Amino acid sequence: MPNIKPVSDLRNYGEVLRHVAIGSPVFLTKNGQGRYAVMDIEEYGEYEKLLAWRKLKSELDEGRCSGEENGWLSAAEVRAHFGERRGG
């Protein structure tokens, strides 16, 4: 069951923080609408890793699709391309 509290409960922030645990964030509402989430710092770190992984996977998938549609470059072509960009 989600732990939902009005943002006004932050007046007694110790009580709000007491309810925060891994897998159990506290959601704060403002004017009856969801506005903020307070989560455990370890869980936040895992969340950031997940977002980074999703971004990397998306870019890798995009590269794979591009290779399949437009053809692949050989290792020599890649070296030549980046050698030209470096000015060497």
Short synopsis of the structure:
The protein is an alpha+beta fold and 88 residues long. It is 55% helix and 17% strand.
How would you sum up this structure, described in words?
The chain is of the alpha+beta class and 88 residues long. It folds into two domains: 3-39; 42-86. It has three helices and three strands; from the N terminus they run E-H-E-E-H-H. It has helices at 13-18, 41-70, 75-86; strands at residues 3-6, 26-30, 33-38. Strands 1-2-3 form a three-stranded mixed beta sheet, with no helix packed on it. Helix 1 (13-18) links the parallel strand 1 (3-6) and strand 2. The longest helix is centred in the middle third of the chain and has 30 residues, at 41-70. The radius of gyration is 23 Å and the shape is elongated. The termini are far apart. 1% of the residues are buried. The model has no long low-confidence stretch (mean pLDDT 93).
Mind describing the biggest β-sheet?
3 strands, mixed
Q: Could you give the count of β-strands? A: 3
Tell me the domain tally: 2
Which series of helices and strands comes N to C? EHEEHH
The level of helicity is 40-55%
**Radius of gyration over all CA atoms, rounded:** 23 Å
Q: Please report which band the strand proportion falls in: under 5%, 5-15%, 15-25%, 25-35%, 35-45% or over 45%.
A: 15-25%
What is the global morphology?
A: elongated
Distance between the termini: 60 Å
* Structure annotation, total helices: 3
Low-confidence blocks of residues: none
Look at the structure and give the mean pLDDT: 93
**How do the strands line up in the largest sheet?**
1-2-3
Structural class based on helices, strands and sheet pairing: alpha+beta
